[in-house]
Amino acid sequence: MSTQHTVFIVDDNQDFRESLAWLLEGAGYTVKAFESAEDFLLGYRQESGCLLLDVRMTGMSGLALQQELIKRGEIIPVIMITGHGDVPVAVQAMKNQAVDFIEKPFEDTAILELIQKTLDDVGEKFNQQKEANAALACWNQLSRRELDVAKLVISGLANREIAEKLDISIKTVEIHRSRVMSKMKVKRLAELMEKVTLIKSEIES
């Protein structure tokens, strides 16, 4: 088990929340528990791990929190915790990218196995998402003309061809290209291409 991950619990039932936290801490996990979706949104800071999320809670529901995390581009995998009557909602949560769901009451071994399975590959995905988020933030800082130049650079055009296409001087292209490289925090074209590949779907939409 890797100690770099955190297991988040969001459930408005205090006894259940504390019991589950005790179980997970006893198994060696780092645990952060919240009594509401709103508290979780205030306290979460892009940590690698997984989220155990109750479907039905006072205030924002588990499904609404899941949808908000998707909207924010968070990569944290979600395991939905459901009561017997919540299975249709849990199925909807699965369609919204939940990795799995488990019904109350559940066996200790079942939840521990599910958590470990979920965490096995979360580190790599989390790091990739952090890199993509950082690259997109840099891309969004480019001016309109810098974006024009950047898109033509990554399409493979030389400075002279870019100048002709945009009807500007080669010197102006060089200035904008330098600014693009600086804002994207890269020194070589290959590095720029790598970052753009991470955010290709976002910048083409």
Structure commentary:
The chain is of the alpha/beta class. It folds into 2 domains: 6-120, Response regulator (Rossmann fold, 3-Layer(aba) Sandwich), CATH 3.40.50; 128-204, Winged helix-like DNA-binding domain superfamily/Winged helix DNA-binding domain (Arc Repressor Mutant, subunit A, Orthogonal Bundle). The protein has 11 helices and 5 strands. The protein has a 5-stranded parallel β-sheet with strand order 2-1-3-4-5, sandwiched between helices. α8 crosses α9.
Main-sheet strand order equals 2-1-3-4-5
How many DSSP helices?
11
The fold-level CATH name of the largest domain is Rossmann fold
Overall geometric form: elongated
Number of strands: 5
Helical proportion? 55-70%
CATH architecture of the largest domain: 3-Layer(aba) Sandwich
How large is the radius of gyration?
22 Å
